[in-house]
Amino acid sequence: MLPRCAFSVCHVLMLVLCLSAAEDFDWTKNDHGSFYYGTFPAGFSWGAGSSAYQTEGAWDKDGKGLSIWDVFSHKKGKIQQNETGDSSCEGYYKVKDDVSLMKELKLNHYRFSISWPRLLPTGIKSDHINEKGMQHYDQLIDHLLENKITPIVTLYHWDLPQVLQEKYGGWQNISMVNHFNEFANLCFERFGNRVKYWITFNNPWSVAVEGYETGEHAPGLKLRGTGAYRAAHHIIKAHAKVWHTYDTQWRAKQKGLVGISLSGDWGEPVDISNQKDIEAAERYVQFYLGWFATPIFHGDYPQVMKDFIGRKSVQQGLGTSRLPTFSPQEKSYIKGTCDFLGVGHFTTRYITQKNNPSSRSSSSYFSDRDLAELVDPRWPDPGSEWLYSVPWGFRRLLNFIKTQYGNPMIYVTENGVSEKMLCTELCDDWRIQYYKDYINEMLKAIKDGVNVKGYTAWSLLDKFEWDEGYSERFGLYYVDFRNKNKPRYPKASVQFYKRIISSNGFPNQREVENWRRKAVETCSSSNQLLAAATRKSKEHAELPKVWPVHDEV
Ligand code: NOJ
């Protein structure tokens, strides 16, 4: 997600958008609009995702410690409407219900995260292990496996134990590397007999930039020009350490894989005949996904980041670059620490070159890049302000990963679209369109030779959307947050995604159109039921906990 100041630049500049950029690179022979009917490789894994703080609730139950998100969301003015994840979807109490929803969808995998302070209330293993927290994840993992759903587990989806923030400054401090390693090691020890896919960090870009540079996310620090680089540096080291721990202590016995989940928007040059725009677009992607992927695959930061941040630091009169450096030993320790790459992708920007002044007071991650972001006003944007639907950008990003990092094994760990809260609409035709087109571009990328093994729709449920509170709904299932039982209702996209899963792709035009028609038909009756239930709930009636999903397509 981008800071608000960047959006306003986007919106002004989009008016002067140069549309000559609509031409393809030669590895994408199809024009943007064409749809490819075909199926995914056998064994392709279909899933949906969630994260602990966004869905679990039970923020202070059963011995859980505080996370930085508990503390941040309780401060006034940080989250839309001052909402919190205190109860959210009450996922902590609804393991069985939610696994039935996954079964209904016929998911092959479920991606969720473990709350570090639920297992280690102070974050430090030698202080105390919370067995009740352990039991919760044991129950979830066992229940998934009983239902033949593979767990893909994220160790860090942003909820750092508050004690570690207060005592050490969180990811600004190198000591996090060992604390995180201890926590990860405990998870391998206790869950690794059943969990074979581990993700160390989810979207470290957001942790670094929004947590330590813009302060929009917990812990809310605004250490402009340095905080994000320092946090990222420690996160990369922590990731590498955990990968080595698994590799040396657990891999032979448990035979699992350890990866990281990086998010990245695609950046397309505004004018593909302009070398400066081409370089600016490349820089955009290198400062985003490349910031983390390049050290992990090649041992060091992208050259362009070293050059730009180094040069600006000198101009600002600093003796060393604001971008930290890895020693030769660290480089070889970090290089190659990825068994699979998790990719979270939602949107695309057009990029043009723009020189930023490099005064010390204005130094920031954003100004270091010397570029401006633009959007095409014709791109659909049904929900979040930053999320424009640009399916072809997904194929390009996947091809970029293939060429830059030696065609790694990829799991798409997040992809999806939101809607605004006020709309209690289960007939989410625009989400069907988004999934259909993005999944199709992923299929094209696989035909291009990109090694994508699985796809995770983001997200299973509507949930707490960080600083946006509950105002943006990403779920396949609608959650009625006003009702204390937090009942779930299938949106039309449930029906559609389910058909993609059972056909392992898109068989032919007639059938795919039929799925869509049926999905929309079914949801109009669900809509009426939701409306009736809402009326009833106003009369203090109990709602069903899980809405029945209609199967007759
Ligand atoms: C990425 C984050 O990992 C996830 O938690 C969030 O819900 C999505 N972006 C959408 O903003």
TrEMBL record:
Keyword hit for Transport: no
UniProt KW keywords: Glycosidase, Hydrolase, Signal
Any GO BP: carbohydrate catabolic process
UniProt name for this protein: Cytosolic beta-glucosidase
Stored Pfam families: Glyco_hydro_1
SUPFAM superfamilies membership: (Trans)glycosidases
PANTHER family assigned: GLYCOSYL HYDROLASE, LACTASE-LIKE PROTEIN
Entry annotation: catalytic residues: E414
Nucleus is among the record's keywords: no
Domain of life, per lineage: Eukaryota
Catalytic activity: beta-D-glucosyl-(1<->1)-N-octadecanoylsphing-4-enine + H2O = N-octadecanoylsphing-4-enine + D-glucose; a beta-D-galactosyl-(1<->1')-N-acylsphing-4-enine + H2O = an N-acylsphing-4-enine + D-galactose; beta-D-galactosyl-(1<->1)-sphing-4-enine + H2O = sphing-4-enine + D-galactose; Hydrolysis of terminal, non-reducing beta-D-glucosyl residues with release of beta-D-glucose
Signal peptide per UniProt: 1-22
Transmembrane portions of the chain: none
Species this chain originates from: Amphiprion ocellaris (Clown anemonefish)
Single Gene Ontology MF annotation: galactosylceramidase activity
Family that this chain belongs to: Belongs to the glycosyl hydrolase 1 family. Klotho subfamily.
EC assignment: 3.2.1.21, 3.2.1.45, 3.2.1.46
